[in-house]
């Protein structure tokens, strides 16, 4: 039912958009009334004209959008749809409302009926999103199947060229663009109109009417047992047969279910290429024109029965779902690939930035090294000039004082030694400067460390002061609680002593009550003995001797003439009641105290 609703919505969408003349996305309520009444009539649904007015009573008589019409359409029309109407008639009503406003048939090679069939095929192959379009993969599937049914050869290069022009536009076609593509005969060149019409009809019967196979065969009658030629049409769950191929006079139908089977039969009664279709209620013997068609029919019927057993849809519908699932999978893979490429590009850009940063650092290091080399060369040049001046001076001195050559030679040696010491001192000075710089860095690090330690120490000190304050408050609170507990203990001891005194008083009263009970019991025994001796005297005096007979087994009551006036159970109850009253009086007196 969900697939049927989707297909119905596609046709209704075409009709709704056709009523939207100014393409504002809204249609007047008067037009929607006509559309709703037509839909209810063709789908055999009771139409309620008041429901539309009540549903849109807050719209102030204005036009209604597609989104606004959808709740009414779902509730009052589509939710009541059953499969008891002719879906072709429904599609024809929607087609009649929309085709004249969207396409001009005068320049096309196909008839209005063929255009209607292409429109139905478009609705079947289109994507489940609005506005409705059919993508290039489904266009290729439809055109390839059309060429096969026309007996033509599929030209893949021509379609690839057309797909390139299509990709530059929008990569999909609307229903009217698809009708114009087929009607212009771009992919059916060399075919006449009749052949193109027959090809469209065969594709329409397969995809829309669920016709899996059709053709003339001989069928054996059930009553007269005669053989008659019939035009058979095989669907997903039935096999209908007609007088002619125009499907006007239907003679019967073979209902297929999961319990049916088809078997080949040997030739008999002058008929060849026989097979039988066995159903639960009856069987049908059929004769094909040749062995090839016989095998093809058997295979097609077995395929239908197998699909019914597996609960699968028709082959073309299942193929459509597989193609859609494959496209969704490819789109998901394409999206995943694009995401990977994007991540790789980001990683490449990051790597490029890192390399650029490293290059700049290397250039800066090279510039620093060059500057240091220039400084070193300048220092060496200065030293060389200095050495040169000293040597010239020494030369002048040596020339002037040839007689003191030995002395000057020793001074020269001393001077050279001093130069070496200066160079050594220069290198040591550079090392000392480096050590000083490192020491300053270490001193800065230690200063930061000391600062952090001081901060941590101050935080710990504040925390300890907080803990100390909490301990002081806890100690003061504990002392207060201790004093309160001591006062409670003293009060409880006082109450305990009072309770002990009351208990001793109750004990004394209990002993007194027991003594009174013993006195009463002794008096009752004495009275019983006196009563018994008195009765014996009366019996002897009157001379009446009676036999002792079994008496009542129930509890004996004691009277003034026998053993006591009460039974033991009644006496215990009276004792218990007396004790409870006494305890109640004592507890009341203690509460008042």
TrEMBL record:
| Segments forming a coiled coil | 327-537
SMART domains associated with the record: PH
Specify the species.
Hucho hucho
Q: Which domain of life is it from?
A: Eukaryota
> What job does the chain carry out?
Phosphatidylinositol 3,4,5-trisphosphate-dependent guanine nucleotide exchange factor (GEF) which, independently of RAS, transduces signals from tyrosine kinase receptors to RAC. It also mediates signaling of membrane ruffling. Regulates the actin cytoskeleton as an effector or adapter protein in response to agonist stimulated phosphatidylinositol (3,4)-bisphosphate production and cell protrusion.
Compartmental location: Cell membrane; Cell projection, Lamellipodium; Cytoplasm; Nucleus
**Predominant location:** membrane
- Annotated PH domain ranges read 210-306
A single Gene Ontology CC annotation of this entry is:
lamellipodium
Q: Which InterPro entries match?
A: EF-hand-dom_pair, EF-hand_SWAP70_N, PH-like_dom_sf, PH_domain, PH_SWAP70
Tell me what this protein is called. Switch-associated protein 70
Instruction: Provide the GO MF annotations for this entry.
Output: DNA binding
Q: Where is the composition biased (Basic and acidic residues)?
A: 571-583
**Assembly:** The SWAP complex consists of NPM1, NCL, PARP1 and SWAP70.
Which keywords are on file for this protein? Cell membrane, Cell projection, Coiled coil, Cytoplasm, DNA-binding, Membrane, Nucleus, Phosphoprotein
Instruction: Provide the residue span(s) of the region labelled Disordered.
Output: 547-593
CDD domains per record: PH_SWAP-70
